[in-house]
Amino acid sequence: MKICLRYAQDRDEALEVMNDGFMRVFLNIDRYDATRDFKSWLSTIMINTSIDHYRSKIRKIEMEELQAKHEMEDAEGILSRINYDDLLKMVQQLSMAYRTVFNLFVIDGYSHEEIASMLSISIGTSKSNLFKAREQLKRMLRAQSH
């Protein structure tokens, strides 16, 4: 559920994604290699299900206007100032495009090249979405501290 919450806009959407993920688990349990860690296998399925959910939604809406180049900032600078629950609430307020790229890059450790491939976007779009997500999170942090 924690993985799904990171990608979803709210708890209801996270439940929908999680249910879809567990359906995939049950349908593909014969593919599970018992010599490997189950939690890791389950996490991969939940991340991929979240991405698939994103892809299906993105086809229905127009992608936000994006810029190609932005400077990268250290993710620890943002994350070190707030606790997990506060961060989760703020991340859920981001647009779907920003939230997905932020989670994939900062939380799950994917590269911009991998994100671009997974989401069928350009590397520049991935970098731009991450930059804008961080900018929005910084604004939220400033507002929260005042």
Automatic annotation (TrEMBL):
This is RNA polymerase subunit sigma-70. Belongs to the sigma-70 factor family. ECF subfamily. Gene3D superfamilies: 1.10.1740.10, Winged helix-like DNA-binding domain superfamily/Winged helix DNA-binding domain. One of its GO terms (molecular function) is sigma factor activity. One of its GO terms (biological process) is DNA-templated transcription initiation. It comes from the Bacteria. Residues 2-57 form the RNA polymerase sigma-70 region domain. Keywords: Sigma factor, Transcription, Transcription regulation. Pfam families: Sigma70_r2, Sigma70_r4_2. CDD domains: Sigma70_r4 (cd06171). It comes from Pedobacter yulinensis. Residues 85-137 form the RNA polymerase sigma factor 70 region 4 type domain.
